[in-house]
């Protein structure tokens, strides 16, 4: 930061910034093609009006996210398991969401044109937690997730240097209270050094300055501009500050009466509402999406929904049922393409697929979708043309596009299966929604005790193979990891200790259960059989033992006590 005297006749332009300064929500204008696909803090405020208009006119929205990590290693046993109930899984996901953050959020806005044509605007939003007057956030990085994103070309510089800030309602309330109390806190260590230097320089300058004199602080980042202004105003009652262009702040010596007059001005760049708008950052767009109530489409979207709730709405509640209620209030229509495709896969001879891109390619294949004039046409808008030229898997905006495209093509398949008239009818999106109604708000549950989480009702149970029990003989100190390694060449099971020498095995594949029962039928150390609660449960066994002991003592008491003798 440098100090200089003001140039003559220089007029402040009141420039703010995305967070790092004060956003100007009244700015308008469409996003340029270069900025539209990859949006950072420098472009976000300018693009927001355009985004709001497109969300309002959308038929539905596709969503995808990339994270700094998925499953926390702390506490132990936090990995998803077939033993998990929905409430237990939610607690595991909740712990992970509290540790990790969103690096990139992809939003694909699908607008329905005439003749069953959909135009897609896809955006990558790089996000970074707000450092504006709130408690300093802690970020956890998972090495596997970082390597994964690096492999697919993720731009960490944009994430760290130009990430759009965000905050939830709890953080906003804390910030709002600090603004009301005039108790501004600088959270960034980098900004703190700059603010201290600014206070020292302005304090030395103001001692000799006259009322009306000005000085300009230079080389400030957007966030430093706001921190410097608020701290100087708080520390020195006889100064006024105003942002200029080129990362500068003008400091002016004023009377106390003039200061009060300036504070009431509608042009003050440090007004509470402007500061809150700036600090909310991406949360402003989240609130636009919530108010629009458009169908929200994702793929395996439980983790996405948890992060949406935690980062932009409120910290995740402890109660699983409260979480479901909140999400349904925010997004009345959720469609998980994993739930949809799992269902329709049973009715078609589809090849085995392992990811969203492969699902999309199968649905686009000529064998499954021959040339059909009624089939939905999906076209990229000019500002998203990059994806028309080259696929970009695991880039959030591209995966969001895949989610919406898979939804449309799956819905068309379902409609064609129902009626032969679909080939000539040019079906509308409302007709597609009717075909998808049974999947509304049912989010896929990966490897757990139910097939899906129903955000508008009871969770759907699923039919899994029966659990197995392993009885260990002559193999001391055997643990779950060793049993997993023993069975891994044959199949995959989730394992939980039942007693000192017994373990329960769960699989989601019947053929794995049959294979293990057959191959370990005569194993000398591992006796594997179908689990029977009355036979293998430690609680039932304990109850039977206690009952047996009580019955035995009663019998002994009866025998030893004998019947009363009769005298002759």
Q: How would you describe what is shown here?
A:
44% of the residues lie in helices and 16% in strands. With 568 residues, the protein is α+β, with helices and mostly antiparallel strands. The strands form four sheets. Strands 2, 3, 4, 5, 9, 10 and 11 form a seven-stranded mixed beta sheet that branches. It is globular, with a radius of gyration of 31 Å. Residues 7-30 have low confidence and may be disordered.
What layout of secondary structure does this protein have?
Layout: E1 2-4, H1 33-37, E2 38-39, H2 41-56, E3 60-67, H3 86-99, E4 102-113, E5 117-126, H4 143-151, H5 156-161, H6 169-181, H7 189-208, E6 214-218, H8 222-235, E7 239-244, E8 248-253, H9 256-263, H10 272-280, H11 283-292, E9 296-298, H12 302-313, H13 320-330, E10 334-336, H14 337-344, H15 356-364, E11 377-380, H16 386-389, H17 396-418, H18 422-425, H19 429-436, E12 442-444, E13 450-454, E14 460-461, E15 468-472, H20 480-487, E16 494-499, E17 502-506, H21 510-519, E18 526-530, H22 533-536, H23 538-561
Parallel strand pairs: 2-5, 3-9, 5-11, 9-10
Antiparallel strand pairs: 1-6, 3-4, 4-5, 6-8, 7-8, 12-13, 13-14, 15-17, 15-18, 16-17
